[in-house]
Amino acid sequence: MSTPKPQTITNEISDMVRSLALNVGTHQRAQERAQPILDECDKLQRLDVVSASLLKANVHVLTGNFEQFEYWLKNAAANGASPADIAKYRLTGYFLSGEISKSHALFEDTFRADAGNAIPFLHQAIASGWFHTARNALNSITPNGAPEALLNAVREGADMMDRLNLSEKTTSLILDEAHGLLVSRGLIWLGSCPEISILEADQGGPAIYMGFSVMTPPKEAAELGWELSMRLATQDLDTQGLLISYQGTVLEAEIDPAHSGVPA
């Protein structure tokens, strides 16, 4: 029986981490599910220390352990990880830790370095409010297999930002608050891309609407939305034309309060 190659093992673990990221919903649930993945990373580490370290970094950022995220990134770099790979994983880490504005500088270079697998970066760009950056990247590189709906969201979002005179500096600050609030409650929004709508005047716009699905009851999601609106208002960021909503996905009777990330 042949021994699996390191790249095959890496791909399998990457799929496990990706599934965890898209579906886990909270840091606590990630903590409960992380150990089997970390055990597989330990096995991989004997064969490929760089890939194992990068994957461990991704797992730890999902559990909310940002110190371990930094530790494993540094370990990967010390063992020869390329600057492009470190940037790619750091981009994801900033994204999931609610530090959107920090990651902006990494996006375009990372996109260009991995244009053949650009769909995850376009999703990150949209969820970070970087419609201009994504449009500029698309003007020079056509990503393979990107769905037309995703490409349209990038272009329509960038066009609306032009109409609103809305800068990516401002959208990054708004999304810092939106993602940061979730992180502070131990929540990870669900799926790979938020719901995006371009609102005209008769729909409450002109504005860009972004809806994030979260693993809480609708009532708690609404309370989070109210708290976000208060945070944005104190910084004069609530009237800039980027509207954020949290959409609760769990019925009250189905949720364990210990997993909600929101105080009862």
Q: How would you describe the overall organization of this protein?
A:
The protein contains 12 helices and 3 strands; from the N terminus they run ααααααααααββαβα. By secondary structure, the protein is mostly helical. Among the domains are: 1-81, no CATH class; 168-260, GMP Synthetase, Chain A, domain 3, CATH 3.30.300. α11 (218-234) links the parallel β2 (207-214) and β3. α3 (49-62) packs antiparallel against α4 (66-78) and α8 crosses α9.
Q: What ranges have pLDDT less than 50 throughout 5 or more consecutive residues?
A: 257-264
Question: End-to-end distance, in Å?
Answer: 53 Å
Number of helices: 12
The major β-sheet equals:
3 strands, mixed
Structural class: mainly alpha
Q: Output the CATH class name of the domain at 168-260.
A: Alpha Beta
What percentage of amino acids are in beta strands?
A: 5-15%
Write the CATH architecture name of the domain at 168-260: 2-Layer Sandwich
